[in-house]
Every structure is written in structure tokens, then in C-alpha cells.
């Protein structure tokens, strides 16, 4: 793909703008709270779009359109089943405790609710995972830019990391959040014309459907039996594994996204943040997945478009970029490329700011140097930004160098993450749950995940202890690993809690359901109240599922 | 505090003008799979999008004073 000067001009304007926003916000930073938690002062429309954009990395954009080309519209389950319900849940039911407890981070909430060791476990695993996922997505971006434009891998990695570093260093979390909103709009403006033109060229939805296998245009029809759909999954595994355990585990407990809602300027705004973010989230399939399906239709129409081949099968992950090259002339191509860069930067800034807060408050202030004046922690926060970016770059090279290490790390992360939601659910809704119960439950859940992986086989993966069951796809295996991990964590937390001494109820006020005054927003109009909004979003979600069933 | 609607509005209006300008002054720049003047339409849309944000920011400013 060849870029014209005008494309570089647009990219340069975008870089200037994100740096300018960081520069403009630098004077707002007086305390460590301003830098690391945005001082609870960000308007709700900004927090909700940032909530969405922080999760919308370049890998997701490229990977989900690739999945769209490979599996079809059932990829939308990752949004409609695997995200929106959990987003509504965290807004309505969990935000009163996160925001109401005045915790500065998710691990800090665990410290308030349970004990020090549960916080330490969560903070350390989160910090390591954040750095590695940042590095892995940086590696993916460097590789993509090298493939598309022949840019040097090191050059594009260092350049984009330097820009993210500059604006997060200047304006902290506020700057990251503000830029994420801009980045979100760029992604939408840069990619939606592509979706519209690709579908139009393929003859609209009907024309497109006539050129691809029927299984690609129905999201539920073939979910009864794993052998009928290309994902190799069935409805129960999908709903329980992806829709409940994995999705609630991510959207309700991952500090990367929850941090955005915690930055909102009021409890009602914090609750509405994920609820409002769910609206664009459920529309994302039309921008990222539908072009992938259109790519297959265009390929089958034999009009001069084809996905490049790799190892004897189409390289699905190139769907969105090859479409861009075929539909965008110089000018619009620059906007599309800028959208891709924007998605990468928003994802990376999300990782860096979340790592910052957890490192500074939950590790440094708690274990390394407690009791220092606030200005000291502000300085540490700034230094951590630099260190965090440097570590991500290092992780990017490690990820590129040692492919098998990369796979192993992602596997271990999935074991650690799988049981998390059980701990939070019991912590927030059962006052009898104890710190020992939570800690042992988490370890037991992680062990159960590893054990399930060791005892089952899918696509040649797992089964390193014995093979008791073979799954039809590694996606199905992944869903079932998380179901077992969650259940073991849930049951063992309850069992151990019942044998250990509960905390006094007076210590749990504001942290647990039943001992917390739930916010009521009577008097506010319906669109400013979280519950009516969530009901509206849920109704829309049901319509979408039926429409594309 | 910075009103984010201004930078968003100005940015999209500006790149909209650049892209629409490409559509007007270099209409022969076409992509392979489409006969439409993509730059012109997308550019005009971005100008409108930017103008909408500027209007919102301007109205908020006016109601504050």
C-alpha cells in the first residue's frame, strides 16, 4: 500500500492534536489524585466513550474483522453476549461499591473489602498482565505497519510509544481519557465508510448473504450443535463461558475499564458510564465484523478482490486493511490509517494509565514506601509512566522474539483471570465472605483452570496431564476452562468463608450490598438515571439479537 | 477545564476540508473497487460532523455566560 503526502499530513495533524490536548491539560495536575485518578471530575459523555475506547485496541479492530471474515456474524456474540450484559451489570450493580467506597483502584477495593493479601495478588497479577498485553499489541501494530507500508518495526513502535508517553506524562489519566474520546470518533469516522461501501459493493445485506455460506449471516441459528458452526461452540458454553464468566470477569473487574468510570464526576455519572458505553459497543459489529463478511462476499464475486493467502488459507486478519486499500483513495486512506493508529494508541494509553495507578497506589504506596507526602507519589506516578512505556516496548520485543513464551503467558493470564468475577460477586453481595476465603478461592480457581486445560484437548492444545475430553475447538475449551475455574472459586470461597471469622458489619459499610445505601436518582429525568437507561439498552440488545438470529 | 468539543470539532472540520479538497481538486484519485468520489463525500461528512461539535460547544458556552 502506498501513501500519498496528504495521508502523512492527516496523520501528522492527528499527532499534533493529541500532543496539544496533553499540553493543554498539563496545568490541571497538582496532586497525585489529579494525575492518577483524574480527580473525579470528568463529564459522563467523555468517561463513557473512553470506557469503550480504552478496550478498542488495534488488535481488536484487526482481529475482530478477521473473525468476521472467518466465522461471520456470529462473531458479534463477542459484543452482544460477551460485553453488553456485563457492562450493564457493572454500571447498575457494582459501581455503587466501586465508586461509593472511594477506592482509587480495583485492587484497593479488594483491600478494603477483604484483606492485604487478596489486594497484593490482584495488584501484582494485574500489573504484569497490563504490561504484557500492552507489549503484545505494540508488537502486533509494528508488524502490521511493516507489512502494509514497509515502515521500520522499531521506528513505528518507538514513535507511537513516544507520543503516548508524552501525552500521558503531561496530563495523566485526564489526558489519556480525553484523547481516547477523540480516538473513538476517529475510529468510527475512519472505518464506517468502509463498512458502508463494502456492503454496498457486495449488493447490500441480501446480496452479501447470497455470496457467503448461510452460516455466516446468522448469529444464533447454528448454535445448537458445535459441529454445525465454524466456531465449534454450542449455546450453553457460549452463554455461560463467554457471556457470564469471561465477559463479567473482564468488564466488571478489569481496572483498565473500571478506572474510566471511577473518574466520573458523580455516582450517577459513574453508573451511567458503562451503560452509555454499551450503546456504541453493540453497534461496533457493524463497523468491524460486517466488513469482514463483505470481504468474503467480494472475494466470491470474483471482481478483482482477494484476501492474501498464508500457509494455504486466506489471511483473514488482513481483511480490513486490504479493503481499505481497495476502497479508499489517497486522502481518505490517511483518515483510515489514522483511525488504526488511534485505536492502537487508545489501547496502549489505557494500559499505561491503569498500570500507573496500580503500581503507585497499590504496590509502591502500600509496600515500598508508605506515608510519604502526596507530591512524592505524584513524582512516582510520572516516573512510572516512563517506566511503564519502556517495559511495554521491552515486552513487545520479547513477544516477537519468543513466540511460545507469548502463548504461554496468555494462557497463564487466562487462568488467573477466569475465577476473578466469583470473588467480586461474593465480595459485593455476600457480607459473610472473608479475606481468607477470597484469597484461597482465587488460587483454587486458577488451579482448576490449569487442571481443566491439562485434562482436555482441543486443536492439539492442552491435555498435558491426560486426555479425558476432546473439544471441537479451542474456543469451546477456553469457555469451559473458565466455567470450571469460576465454579471452583465460587464454591471454595463460600466453603472457606464459612470456616473463617467474618469481619464486623461496621467495617463493611459502603462495601457490601445490604450495608450500603444504594443510590436513588428520583427527580432526575429518565435519561439521567442509570436504571431506565439500562432497560432501554437491554431492549435494543434483544432486538439486535433477534434481527440477526 | 478544556471543553473537548472544541478540539474535536476543529480537527474534524480541518481534515474534512483537506479530504473534500482532494475530492474537488483531484477527482481522478479513485480507489479500485468503487466509482464514487469517496474523498468528496467523506470530506463533506467530516466537515458537518466537526461543525456539529463546534455548535454544541458554542451553545454550552453561551448558556454558561
CATH architect. name of the largest domain in chain A: Up-down Bundle
The total count of strands of chain B amounts to 0
Look at the structure and name the CATH superfamily of the largest domain in chain A.
Sodium/glucose cotransporter
Task: Please work out how many helical segments of chain B DSSP would assign.
Answer: 2
Can you put this structure into words, describing what you see?
The complex is a heterodimer of chains A (549) and B (65). Chain A contains 21 helices and five strands. Chain A is an all-alpha fold and 549 residues long. Chain A folds into two domains: 5-22 and 38-401 and 522-547, Sodium/glucose cotransporter (Up-down Bundle), CATH 1.20.1730.10; 410-518, no CATH class. Chain A is globular and about 70 Å long. Chain B has 65 residues and is mostly helical. Chain B has two helices and no strands. The A-B interface holds A 6, 9-10, 13-14, 17, 20-21, 24-25, 28, 41, 46, 178, 181-182, 185, 189, 193, 197, 201, 298, 303-305, 325-332, 334-335 and B 1-2, 4, 7-8, 11-12, 14-15, 18-19, 22-23, 26, 29-34, 36, 38-39, 41-43, 45-46, 49.
Summarize the structure.
The complex is a heterodimer of chains A (549) and B (65). Chain A is mainly α and 549 residues long.
Amino acid at each position: 500500500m502506498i501513501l500519498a503526502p496528504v495521508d502523512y499530513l492527516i496523520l501528522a495533524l492527528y499527532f499534533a492534536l493529541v500532543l496539544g490536548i496533553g499540553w493543554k491539560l498539563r496545568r490541571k495536575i497538582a496532586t497525585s489524585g489529579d494525575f492518577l485518578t483524574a480527580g473525579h471530575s470528568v463529564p459522563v459523555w467523555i468517561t463513557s466513550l473512553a470506557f469503550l475506547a480504552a478496550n478498542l485496541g488495534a488488535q481488536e479492530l484487526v482481529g475482530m474483522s478477521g473473525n468476521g471474515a472467518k466465522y461471520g456474524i456470529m462473531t458479534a456474540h463477542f459484543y452482544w453476549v460477551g460485553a453488553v450484559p456485563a457492562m450493564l451489570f457493572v454500571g447498575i450493580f457494582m459501581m455503587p461499591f466501586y465508586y461509593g467506597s472511594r477506592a482509587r483502584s480495583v485492587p484497593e477495593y479488594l483491600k478494603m473489602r477483604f484483606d492485604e493479601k487478596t489486594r497484593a495478588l490482584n495488584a501484582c497479577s494485574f500489573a504484569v498482565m497490563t504490561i504484557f498485553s500492552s507489549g503484545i499489541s505494540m508488537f502486533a501494530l509494528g508488524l502490521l505497519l511493516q507489512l502494509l507500508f514497509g515502515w521500520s518495526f522499531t521506528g513505528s513502535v518507538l514513535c507511537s510509544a513516544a507520543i503516548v508517553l508524552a501525552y500521558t506524562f503531561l496530563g495523566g489519566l485526564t489526558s489519556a481519557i480525553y484523547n481516547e474520546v477523540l480516538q473513538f470518533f476517529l475510529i468510527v469516522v475512519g472505518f464506517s465508510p468502509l463498512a458502508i461501501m463494502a456492503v454496498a459493493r457486495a449488493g447490500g445485506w441480501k446480496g452479501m448473504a447470497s455470496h457467503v455460506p448461510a452460516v455466516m449471516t446468522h448469529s444464533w441459528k447454528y448454535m445448537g450443535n458445535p459441529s454445525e458452526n465454524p466456531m465449534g461452540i454450542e449455546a450453553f458454553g457460549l452463554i455461560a463461558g463467554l457471556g457470564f464468566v469471561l465477559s463479567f470477569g473482564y468488564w466488571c473487574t478489569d481496572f483498565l475499564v473500571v478506572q474510566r468510570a471511577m473518574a466520573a464526576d458523580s455516582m450517577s455519572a459513574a453508573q451511567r458510564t458503562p451503560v452509555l458505553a454499551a450503546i456504541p459497543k453493540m453497534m461496533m459489529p457493524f463497523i468491524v465484523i460486517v466488513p469482514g463478511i463483505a470481504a468474503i462476499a467480494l472475494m466470491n464475486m470474483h471482481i478483482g478482490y482477494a484476501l492474501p493467502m498464508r500457509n494455504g488459507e486466506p489471511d483473514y486478519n488482513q481483511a480490513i486493511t486490504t479493503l481499505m486499500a481497495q476502497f479508499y483513495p489517497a486522502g481518505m486512506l490517511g483518515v483510515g490509517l489514522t483511525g488504526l493508529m488511534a485505536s492502537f494508541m487508545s489501547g496502549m494509553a489505557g494500559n499505561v494509565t491503569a498500570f500507573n495507578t496500580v503500581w503507585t497506589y497499590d504496590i509502591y504506596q502500600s509496600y515500598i514506601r508508605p506515608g510519604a507526602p502526596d507530591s512524592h507519589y505524584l513524582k512516582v506516578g510520572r516516573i512510572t509512566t516512563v517506566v511503564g512505556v519502556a517495559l511495554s516496548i521491552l515486552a513487545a520485543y520479547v513477544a516477537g522474539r519468543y513466540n511460545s513464551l507469548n502463548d504461554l503467558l496468555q494462557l497463564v493470564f487466562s487462568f488467573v483471570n477466569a475465577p476473578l468475577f466469583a470473588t467480586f460477586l461474593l465480595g459485593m453481595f455476600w457480607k459473610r465472605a472473608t479475606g481468607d476465603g477470597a484469597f484461597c478461592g482465587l488460587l483454587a480457581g486458577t488451579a482448576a483452570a490449569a487442571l481443566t486445560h491439562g485434562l482436555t484437548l482441543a486443536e492439539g492444545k492442552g491435555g498435558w496431564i491426560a486426555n479425558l475430553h476432546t473439544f471441537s475447538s479451542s474456543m469451546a475449551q477456553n469457555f469451559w476452562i473458565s466455567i470450571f475455574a469460576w465454579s471452583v472459586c465460587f464454591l471454595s470461597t463460600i466453603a472457606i468463608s464459612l470456616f473463617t471469622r467474618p469481619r464486623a458489619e461496621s467495617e463493611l459499610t459502603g462495601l457490601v450490598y445490604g450495608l450500603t445505601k444504594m443510590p436513588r436518582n428520583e427527580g432526575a429525568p429518565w435519561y439521567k438515571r442509570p436504571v431506565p437507561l439500562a432497560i432501554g439498552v437491554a431492549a435494543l440488545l434483544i432486538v439486535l439479537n433477534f434481527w440477526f438470529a | 477545564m478544556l471543553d473537548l468539543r472544541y478540539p474535536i470539532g476543529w480537527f474534524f472540520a480541518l481534515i474534512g476540508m483537506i479530504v473534500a479538497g482532494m475530492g474537488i481538486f483531484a477527482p481522478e484519485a479513485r480507489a479500485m473497487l468503487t466509482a464514487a468520489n469517496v474523498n468528496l463525500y467523506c470530506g463533506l461528512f467530516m466537515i458537518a460532523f466537526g461543525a456539529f461539535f463546534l455548535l454544541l460547544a458554542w451553545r454550552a458556552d453561551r448558556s454558561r455566560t
